[in-house]
User: What shape does this take?
Amino acid sequence: MTGLFDLAGKRAMVTGANTGLGQAIAVGLAKAGADIVAVGRSEPGETARLVANAGRSVQAVFADLSSVEPIARVMEEAGPIDILVNNAGVIRRADAIDFSEADWDAVMDTNLKVAFFLSQAAARGWIAAGRGGKIIQVASLLSFQGGVRVPSYTASKSGLAGLTKAMANEWAARGVNVNAIAPGYFVTNNTEALRADETRSRQILERIPAGRWGAPDDLAGVAVFLASAASDYMHGAIVPVDGGWLAR
Assistant: This one.
């Protein structure tokens, strides 16, 4: 059974792997045997150390994923990959009545547009080579709900869930698995403002059946599952990892 989750010999590209959820996913994949291609704007120092401790290698590819401009170069520098994790994302908070076009575009470009075209580039390579691959989108609880004061983030993550299904419809028969993880409320930079707000933090914790904020490491297992042969018949799934939030 353990062989189903073995990623030995695989190369996984993880965007935004330097911190938070991306780092936890990258390290989890490395512990399962994958070498990591870390795509981001800065050196993946801590991630590289943790991956090395797991006995795997890290290749850093430097890119600003706020636009599609670097995608062709990123794919060329990375070389062959077997797994793509679209984790890089941004968030902007403001009342919908006041939300700016600049904040709308910044979030939609990174969270949705770049994720689509990176997925397209990976799938093109795999299909042209006559082999499959695994794409894991990092969606959100707000792929299912509306949220408050995050209209562009909600739109981007709802769109990412829809794209996960649309791409799965077209690529499943070509051996490309496209699925998504939908994290709930996790301890990351994106939730720092919520956790600092005593009232809002209490309200969130009161609704989570698990009674705590998620830790980034809580995503590692589902990421390994979706990257491995264990999920070969899963296509277009959006898997919540939310401490039970959606169940309440």
